Amino acid sequence: MHLGLKTQIGAGVLVFSAATWLIAADLSASKLDGLTVHEWGTFTSIAGDDGYPVDWDSLRGTDDLPGFVQNAGARNRKFTFNGTVRMETPVLYFYSPRELTADVRVQFPHGAITEWYPKADTATYESKSELDRYQTVYSSSNIYAIQQLLSKPPSDLDRKMVKVGTTDWVDTSMRTVAGTISWNGIKVQPNATPAFPRENQPSRYYAARETEAAALTVESQHEKFLFDRGVGRIPVPLTARVVSNGKIAVNNVTEETVPAIILFENRGGKIGYRNAGTLKDEIRFDSLALDGSVTALRRELESVLIQQGLYPKEAHAMVETWQDSWFEEGTRVIYVVPTATITAALPLQVDPAPSQTARIFVGRVELLTPDMKQTIEDAVAKKDYTSVQRYGRFLQPWLDRIYRADTRTINAVLAKVP
Questions:
Q1: What are phi and psi of 375, to 5 degrees?
Q2: Where are the beta strands (DSSP E) in 79-197?
Q3: pLDDT over 70 for what percent of the chain?
Q4: pLDDT tens digits, 9-45
Q5: What is the pLDDT of residue 169?
Q6: What is the helix (H) or strand (E) element at residue 387, kind and residue range?
Q7: Which end of the chain is more exposed for a tag (fewer CB within 10 A), N or C?
Q8: DSSP state letter for 290
Q9: What would the pLDDT profile of 227-241 be if each residue is shown by its tens digit?
Q10: Are 84 and 55 within 8 A, CB to CB?
Q11: Is 344 helix (H, G, I), strand (E, B) or coil?
């Protein structure tokens, strides 16, 4: 019989350490006193004309994960999963002065888990009334009261949900879908050094191992953390839009202060950024001078993450994991997600209970600027599809925004771009 952990946190990087830990570089067993939970992860969304997040197919495109990572088979289907937020690379780290066994359960209202490692029990639930409306056949044994699935069920979800497979959803907008993932019997082994899986191809996945977290074993699988990803309709705490004078207006739409906000632009390899600090109400950014340094921005981001509660090695691992994505071509707002947003969007229950927790998520909101719009229009007119490949997985939403109902043009471009 193992010990028990009960606290609610969002899915992300969970780090179990000592409550007395002040510096990540000093994690000797003699310093540990109980368990602490730290968390990091990323929310990615795309701003529409009004600044609010739009639906997009975040699973389209190349998979960037190692082959041993398990998935729900949702990527690159003929139908798309058009949520508003891609929950990317949440991981859970455990630090403990002694070996223990733990259970973890993540709830994802208005979303579904799409990838994970090590082995876990995952489930997706669809609204019973929605399935009935489409005359979908399902077993009565798969019907659940929503209170059985979610600790705080949203008022806009059906009171009865049906456990379904990935291809059985009738609402791929994620409005009537909820998901869960559980790891049971996790062996936390602070002094063990098992071989972790690795493939020859490079992947951002491995950077998250560069901490002093305990080794984990789930059945026969070993890892330095618990990993999951998902797609859904997580409320975004801010809006971001380009206003008529070329400035970018960012508004806080919550009652919480956004702990940190940065405007970033990469145009043809030249970058600029402005760290505006906290956001209580609204800020308007002027055009950025493209004379910045990625190295300097990395240092600033790591400092911000440490100030929010991550240990230095954790902050470094997070930035190292996402530097090629956060700093890629385009214009985006990068921000620290308020704690209440994480708690409501991604409740997490863990046994046994930690003595202290911290949850740090970085959000990113992609923006379509007038310069980007003109670049895409010029490239499409010239059939210069190489020029638009730089926008990667965000190209389709940009095309949808620019060409609206002209599906012929949109499909012609996407057929030429990998």
A1: -60, -45
A2: 85-92, 100-109, 111-117, 121-127, 143-145, 160-164, 177-189
A3: 89
A4: 333 444 433 333 334 343 443 344 677 778 899 999 9
A5: 73
A6: none
A7: N
A8: S
A9: 999 999 998 999 999
A10: yes
A11: helix
User: Are 237 and 254 spatial neighbours (Cβ–Cβ below 8 Å)?
Assistant: yes
Model pLDDT, residue 13 = 46
Q: What is the pLDDT of residue 75?
A: 56
Gap between the Cα atoms of 150 and 357, Å rounded? 21
CA distance 142 to 128: 10
User: Residue 248: helix, strand or coil by DSSP?
Assistant: strand
Q: Among candidates 248, 270, 287, which has minimal Cα distance to 368? A: 248
Alpha carbons within 13 angstroms on the beta-carbon side of residue 43 total 30
Structure-block tokens of residue 29: 């067993």
Say yes or no to pLDDT of 94 above 70: yes
pLDDT tens column, 195-208: 999 999 999 999 99
Nearest to 368 by CA among 268, 234, 265: 265
Dihedral angle computed from the Cα positions of residues 314, 320, 321 and 326, in that order, rounded to the nearest 10 degrees: 120
DSSP, collapsed to helix, strand or coil, labels residue 371 as: helix
Report how far apart the first and last C-alpha atoms of the chain are (Å, whole number): 51
pTM: 0.89
Q: Take residue 300 and report the two structure tokens written for it.
A: 């600033």
